[in-house]
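Async update (no meeting this week)

Hi team, since we skipped the sync, here's where things stand on the single-chain job. The sequence we agreed to prioritize is pasted below, unchanged from the tracker. I ran it this morning and attached the output directly underneath so nobody has to dig for it. Comments welcome in thread, and please keep replies under the output.
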Amino acid sequence: MMKPLYIGIVTACIVIIFGLVMKDLQLAMNITSWIGIILLVVAMLLSGVFVSGDRMRPNQAAETTERRKERNKTTFNALLMAIPNFATAIALYVFLP
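Output:
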């Protein structure tokens, strides 16, 4: 369960190290922001948030319980990976001069 969170933390750390090597933390902030946004959009697409209730109801009725659990788990994992990236982007935004 914590593996996606650790992946997100490692990704954010790699981007920060890349930003430090390039001497451009603004770039690191932009990269972590975009990674977080992409993961958030993936989670939203998988959860079905962009679909109306009329379309969601037949989709949920047709899918199996195992598939629903897998989809919800993937959505949750994408959100867990996005959290450290958003936190890093916010911290860099607040603390950069």
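Quick observations from my side:
The chain has four helices and no strands.
The mean pLDDT is 92.
Reply here if anything looks off.
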